[in-house]
């Protein structure tokens, strides 16, 4: 990563947009700590490199991306497969996450690339939390199978701070309900 950034800076590339991950915001208690430190270090070094050469270094942080092309074991495809087989879909971990549809992520990356942007970090998310159990219930209803009871888990989780992206004119266009319906159709 850093060698590639150095090459781009050497050739006076004016702007670089790099995607990170919302796991970068985790602390040392998480199972992602080594990843968090590595990504953070890469971001800081890349930013220093581009600022020193007069370039713009944009670090985009997509939150929980869903949509076409997700592996079958990821949350929504796994829940769809459960419901399709007549089972009640159940999320292994019923938590609150900030989900964002892949097409909205792509639009955000295009905006960050094409528009005049300041260097720094840009979160990409809905800016609100959705409970994984509620997603499972929605999929169960779509298949006509009995939904699992909704757990009463505290509404806690990291939410994308989308103010910088909104200032560029970007906002999410796709609702999770509509996108899940499209993913169910794609499954068939």
Describe the fold and architecture.
The chain is an alpha/beta fold. About 45% of the residues lie in helices and about 15% in strands. Helix 2 links the parallel strand 1 and strand 2. The longest helix has 20 residues.
- The SSE order reads HEHEEHEEHEEHHH
Strand content: 5-15%
Measured distance between first and last alpha carbons: 39 Å
**What low-confidence regions span 5 or more consecutive residues with pLDDT below 50?**
none
Largest sheet: 3 strands, parallel
What best-fitting shape do the alpha-carbon axes yield? elongated
Rg over CA atoms: 19 Å
Q: Strand order within the widest sheet?
A: 1-2-6
Mean of residue pLDDT values = 90
Number of helices: 7
The SS-based structural class is: alpha/beta
What's the number of extended β-strand segments?
A: 7
Q: Fraction of residues in helices?
A: 40-55%
What is shown here, in short?
The protein has 188 residues and is of the alpha/beta class. Helices cover 43% and strands 14% of the residues.
């Amino acid at each position: 990563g850093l060698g590639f950034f150095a090459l781009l800076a050497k050739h006076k590339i004016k702007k670089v947009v790099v995607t990170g991950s919302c796991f970068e915001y985790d602390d040392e208690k998480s199972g992602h700590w080594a990843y968090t430190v590595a990504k953070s270090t890469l971001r800081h070094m890349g930013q220093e490199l581009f600022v020193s050469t007069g370039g713009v270094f944009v670090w985009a942080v997509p939150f929980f991306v869903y949509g076409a092309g997700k592996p079958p074991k990821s949350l929504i495809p796994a829940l769809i497969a459960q419901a399709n087989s007549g089972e009640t879909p159940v999320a292994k971990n019923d938590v609150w996450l900030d989900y964002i549809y892949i097409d909205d992520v792509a639009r955000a990356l295009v905006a960050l690339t094409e528009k005049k942007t300041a260097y720094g970090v840009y979160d990409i998310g809905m800016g609100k939390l959705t409970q994984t159990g509620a997603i499972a219930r929605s999929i169960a209803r779509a298949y006509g199978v009995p939904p699992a009871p909704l757990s009463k888990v505290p509404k806690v989780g990291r939410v994308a701070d989308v103010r910088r992206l909104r200032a560029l004119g970007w906002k999410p266009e796709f609702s999770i309900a509509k996108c899940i319906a499209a993913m169910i159709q794609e499954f068939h």
